Amino acid sequence: MRVINQTRGTTLMEQGGHARNLWTRTLGLMGRAGLPPGGGLVLDPGGSIHTCFMRFPLDVVFLDRRGKVLRVIERMPPWRVSPIVWGTRYVLELPPGTIAATGTVAGDTVELVR
């Protein structure tokens, strides 16, 4: 799956996974040593995340069902729980630095390309 920030003309994720059931959303990225540049995971549906049992920080983007960015969290460290972001449909878990590199901010429009 690719994820493109239509507002900025940048790519958030070149090749990533799509977690669409309880098991894959719960497991998420646990057990991995990190994410490669351009990698990531789309959680569907989502509303909040945790980084328990993670070994690396994440950039996190919360999207509504139309792809509008509701909130971003840069470099969320391991062993944290995000706030609940009401109206979220998709949560992007991305390598740290992705949000800054792409200029992504709340209000941008993002497209998920399967």
What does this structure look like?
- The chain is 10% helix and 32% strand.
- By secondary structure, the chain is mainly β.
- The chain has one domain (2-113): Jelly Rolls, CATH 2.60.120.1140.
- A five-stranded mixed sheet has the order 3-4-7-5-6. A three-stranded antiparallel sheet has the order 2-1-8.
- It is globular, with a radius of gyration of 12 Å.
Number of strands: 8
Number of helices: 2
CATH superfamily caption? Protein of unknown function DUF192
Side by side, the strands of the main sheet go 3-4-7-5-6
Write the H/E string, N to C.
EEEHEEEEHE
Q: In the CATH hierarchy, what is the architecture at level 2?
A: Sandwich
Binned, the helix content reads: under 10%
CATH class designation: Mainly Beta
Structural class: mainly beta
CA radius of gyration:
12 Å
Number of separate domains: 1
- Uncertain segments: none
- How much of the residues is beta strand, in percent? 25-35%
Q: For the terminal residues, how far apart are their CA atoms? A: 5 Å
The CATH topology is given as: Jelly Rolls
Looking at the structure, what is the overall shape? globular
Largest sheet: 5 strands, mixed
Mean of the pLDDT scores?
A: 93
Concise structural overview:
The chain has one domain (2-113): Jelly Rolls (Sandwich).
